[in-house]
Amino acid sequence: MMSFYHVANGTFIIFIEVVQGIIGSGNIGATAAKLFANAGHEVAISNSRGPESLTSVVNSIGANVKAKSVEDAIKFGEVILLAIP
Predict the structure, then answer these.
(1) What is the pLDDT at residue 85?
(2) Does a structural domain hold residue 6?
(3) Which residues pair with 45 in a beta bridge?
(4) DSSP 19
(5) DSSP string covering 25-80
(6) Which of 14, 40, 61, 85 has its CB surrounded by the most CB atoms within 10 Å?
(7) pLDDT reported for residue 23
(8) Is residue 33 a part of any domain in this protein?
């Protein structure tokens, strides 16, 4: 999704929404999910333990983030962030 915002003096800001899939829910993965979600992107976060283990992460981030299996997060995302050790 692309949105255009007129700022002033003929200047426009273009916001492109990108669907993110994140593999890994540690410090880096969870922080990236929060930043992307707060910026308005749809995010799927996953880990090796399954989506059930991500309830607290998803609840702490709020809107725009979903817990999914690794396979589903890969299918979900236009961009995949691999945040694993």
Answers:
(1) 86
(2) no
(3) 22, 67
(4) -
(5) -SHHHHHHHHHHHHTT--EEEE-TT-GGGGHHHHHHH-TTEEE--HHHHHHH-SEE
(6) 61
(7) 96
(8) yes
